[in-house]
Structure formats: C-alpha cells, structure tokens
Amino acid sequence: MSTDFFFRLFGMVIFAILGAYAGNWLGRLNPDLQLMYTVSISLVGALFGLILTPYFTTRPIRSLSALLGRLSAETLFSGLIGLVIGLLTAALLSFPLSMLPPPFGKILPFIGVLLFGYFGVAIFVMRQTDIANILGGLGSHREESGGNSWTQTNRTILLDTSVIIDGRVADIAKTGFLPGTLLIPRFVLNELQYIADSPDGLRRARGRRGMEVLAELQKATSVVVRISDIDVDGVREVDDKLVILARQLKCPILTNDYNLNRIAELQGVLILNINELANSVKSVVLPGELMEVNVLQEGKEVNQGVGYMEDGTMVVVENGNKHLGKVIPVTVTKVLQTAAGRMIFAKPEIKE
C-alpha cells in the first residue's frame, strides 16, 4: 500500500466524520432534512478527503524533501548553525523587549525570533564556503611531519559507468594518484549490471569488463572503494543523478564521458577526465628534436609513413613509405594538438 493511498483513506474517513458532524449541526435547522444533510455532507467530506488529502500531507513533504535533497550538506549545516545562533540571539533580547509597554512587549519578542532566525540562516548560508574553510583548516592541523592533509585523504570521488568500463581507473588507482575514497552509487552499479546483461554481445562484454574492473579495484590496497545505496529522488537519468549527487557531496566525478563532462562543468561540478589525464602525461617533444620511430604503415597522403611513440602518440613521417617496417631516426618538424590527441610530423634523418 502506497503512502498516498494510505493518507487518502485516512483523510476520507476523517473528513467524512467531520462532514457528518457538520451535516448533523445544519440539520438541526430543519429536522425533516437532518438525515439527508448528514449523509450528503459526509459524502462530500469523504470525496474531499479522498482527492485532496495528499496535497496538504504527502505532497508538501515530498517537495520539501526534494528541495533539501538538492541542497548540499555544507549548505544545510551552515543554515542549521545560523538558525541556532539567530534563535539564541533572539532569546537573549526577548527579556528586555518583553519589558516594553504593551503592545510592544508582546509583539516585539515574536518579531525578533523571526528576524534573527531569518538573518542567522541567510548570513551563514551566504558565508558557507568561508565557514567550511575554517572548519577544514581546524580539522587539518596535524603533526607537521605526518602525511597528507584532511582534504586529500578524505576526499570522495564519484565514479561514472563509462570510466569503470574503460578499465584504466584500476591502473591509475594502483599507482596512488587517486587519494581518498572511490564512491560507486548503487544506480551506477545497476546500470553496469544492465549493460552486462544486454543481448548485444559487444555491450555484454563491456559490462562484464566493468564488473572485473570493480572486483580489481576492491582488491587493491592503495585505494578505498565504497558502494553506497545513496540515490537522488525524482531523477531517472544516471548522468543527472551523478551531477546532483556531486553537488550535494561537494566532490568531483571521475569519467571519460564527453557529454557528462560538459553538463557537469556547466553546473559547476569538478570533473576528473581520464582522457585528459592520458593526453597530459604523453611525452612532450619540440620541433627540431631527434628521435627514433618504427614506421608501421603508409599515411593518408602520398609518400607518408605512420609510426607511434611508446605512449601511443601518432607520428607522421614525410617520405616514410619507403621505410615500412623499419626503425629510423627522424627529426620533429611540427607538433599538432587535435581534439583526438597530439600528432607529430617528422622527416627522416637518413639518406635516401
């Protein structure tokens, strides 16, 4: 039985009883129609309770819950502290205000509670970042010679489905470059399970690869992996849930999904993109630098050859089609950064 249905029945009974009392009272004006008044108004009350009870019981509670769910824990904590301080200030001022002549002595203490409560919440929420920094600074005072700061060792990182399927996150985590806790919400795990059970062979293989990566992450001693049942009510898309959850927890999202990357950045959520990390750690070469390349295949243009560096960077060699299958010294002529990555153009340094 749903909560709405229960409250509808409860409201129907309550308003039917109230309607019966009201009909009985009106029926006293005309005793011949008292029974008709009682029954008819009772039925109207039952209908009123059946239809409208959720609109002033469960619906406002759900709206308030959704509103609070969109607020971060930092905002809620700051608002609570501001409310307590505002009420304490109003309580201290209520006694001298109550000594004023009527009607001020009765009205001003109540107005003071409302005003100081409101201003306390507003001011503390407005300065919530400063308050969090102060508390974070107090929490990070440790031994001068001891390890990492509080913000580093206790940072939470949300994992997206795409980055789990990608698999590189396990290798990165083993190196220790991901301090903190890797948080995997249950809805991400459900999406991964759905992919692993897909009738499409390729999607099924990707999903199972993701399951293997999760098992590998949980066995790793250099990283903490936590699977949580935390969810976002009223939202169906996994990407939207991740963004809202990241805003609530004030934590980054680890992903390699371009669309999620753009949506999160527009909403002020920090993104850790593995593709950007991979591009940033590739070897840096400059025009005029000498290196050796194994020419593996012909290029798109005439007389071009294509090779690859150890990190996977493509090297296009002019007149390289004459040296297919050979490792030759080349000189870098140009470095081109594209959306797909870095491309290097070079020319052979051996005599034709």
Compose a concise summary of this entry.
It is built from 14 helices and 10 strands. The protein is of the alpha/beta class and about 350 residues long. A 5-stranded parallel beta sheet has the order 3-2-1-4-5. It has a 5-stranded mixed beta barrel with strand order 6-7-8-10-9.
Overview of the molecule:
The chain has 352 residues and is α/β, with parallel strands linked by helices. The chain has four domains: 3-61, no CATH class; 71-129, no CATH class; 150-279, 5'-nuclease (Rossmann fold), CATH 3.40.50; 290-348, OB fold (Dihydrolipoamide Acetyltransferase, E2P) (Beta Barrel), CATH 2.40.50. The chain is 55% helix and 16% strand. It has helices spanning 3-27, 34-52, 58-70, 73-98, 104-126, 128-139, 150-153, 161-166, 168-174, 186-196, 201-219, 238-249, 258-266, 274-280; strands at residues 156-159, 181-185, 224-228, 253-255, 271-273, 290-298, 305-308, 314-317, 327-338, 341-348. The strands form two sheets. The protein has a five-stranded parallel β-sheet. Strands 6-7-8-10-9 form a five-stranded mixed barrel. A hairpin with a 6-residue loop joins strand 6 and strand 7 (305-308). Helix 10 packs across helix 11 (201-219). 22% of the residues are buried. Mean pLDDT is 83; it is low at 140-153.
